[in-house]
Amino acid sequence: MLPYIFLILLAAHPFCVSIAHTTNGNKNIFILAGQSNMSGRGGVVHNKWDEYIPPECQSNPRILRLTAELLWEEAKEPMHQDIDYYAVCGIGPGMSFANSVLKNDPKIGVIGLVPCAVGSTNISQWSKGSSYYNQMLNRTETALQGGGRVRALLWYQGESDTLDLEDAKLYNSRLQKFFTDVRNDLHAPSLPIIQVALATTLGHYKEIVRQAQLDIHLRNVKTVDANGLKVGPDYVHLSTPAEVQLGQMLANAFLMFGSEKE
């Protein structure tokens, strides 16, 4: 019944119909999850986005985005505007990532981005059974209904867990459980996961959380270190150029999964 309803919705929306034909049931699906530096605050100053979209983040008919209404559309910045809706979103790493993957692997086909990140969330709010966790799973399962497969989870979170010493100390075990639960619930035990080690902090325990991230040694989990990337005027969120660079770093990490199998 759900696929039938989906087709009815597509028929009522000409733009989505064209997308449906181009995907051909062969989407490469990427989950974007975490908190505000994943949803993107690049170019946001005093709660206003400057609307500058770098060339690396331009739209492409082969890059789709699952909307809050669970429909595919051609992706555009701000990627998380209807997901992380309580805040002003700007440039994140998602579009830069997708464009970089297409540039380096033009035969990959259509990329389907599933934005799920929400600002100010800590790792406990992403635990199995939580609303954010369930929303991420539901969105991913819906994305799969039209065909394709999940290629990777891109995860950037942890700033909120630097506020409390106990949270910082428990971060490693909570993160490992989160990754394991996601793989189990998606029935993908070897799902590639690319996490980002913190560049900024909200509290005093940044180094404990960073070390917890760097100490994750699960199979098929890669860590991209954002430390040293340029931050914006609030000293918490990455700047637009940094988000672009981070997206390219994430793309390089993803492409390494393929080269390692050759």
TrEMBL record:
Residues 27-255 form the Sialate O-acetylesterase domain. Residues 1-18 form the signal peptide. The keyword Hydrolase applies. It holds the Pfam family SASA. Gene3D superfamilies: SGNH hydrolase (3.40.50.1110). One of its GO terms (molecular function) is hydrolase activity. Keywords: Hydrolase, Signal. This is Carbohydrate esterase. It comes from Nicotiana attenuata. The lineage of its organism: Eukaryota, Viridiplantae, Streptophyta, Embryophyta, Tracheophyta.
